[in-house]
Amino acid sequence: MIEVGQLERHVGASVARAIEDELDWEHLPFTHASTFSAVKLIGADRAGWEADVVLSDGSAMRMRVAIDDDRMGYVNATFDADGTENGRAVCRITATGADSCHMTLHFFAPERVGLDRDTAGAFYRDLFGRLIDEDEPKMVYRAAALRAGAAPHRDRRSVTLADGSSHAVPLVCPHQGLPLNCEPDAKGILQCPWHGYRFDVRTGACISGRIKGWKMTASP
Fold this sequence. Notes:
Elements: E1 2-11, H1 15-23, H2 28-31, E2 36-45, E3 48-55, E4 60-67, E5 73-79, E6 85-97, E7 100-109, H3 117-148, E8 156-160, E9 166-170, E10 189-191, E11 198-200
Antiparallel strand pairs: 1-7, 2-3, 3-4, 4-5, 5-6, 6-7, 8-9, 10-11
Helix pairs in contact: 1-3
């Protein structure tokens, strides 16, 4: 593998939130819907994860994330179906404040005949720059949710379904307290835009995952 480019980025979230975000494999097809269409987990722990991912163009690869021992950086590598590594991003993170950090990313590609390092570097800078742009609001919202605790989970707004019935739904998702700023579909299902958890507006039940929904209250 040879280095093909670098990216420097300031992020308005702490190192802890940046590492938490990198460990969050579930959000790929939702927060990053323009890049990923599916993810199937192989294994995960606090040191990293491995999963099979499908890109938005339908191509598939394996992705492996390993968090550095000091939890101030990570390696994100991807592999072809035969297990050959086809790309790698090495990130180190420096704290710049209680709610800010600086990311330095180095990108690597296989040393192959015909490799255009400038083109490969531009591809990785564009890709990871876009992913960080999409992740930063999530990290900021997550930090606010942790500071706020349970209180925002009690706040409600009213949504109206196709049958004319009105229902009270939370302003934030029960999963991580991120904004539930979406509308129900024709069947009365609300899908969180961050992780794709789906909720029945009529009952508050989560119908697609391992989390609880919300307790029903009167519509505001």
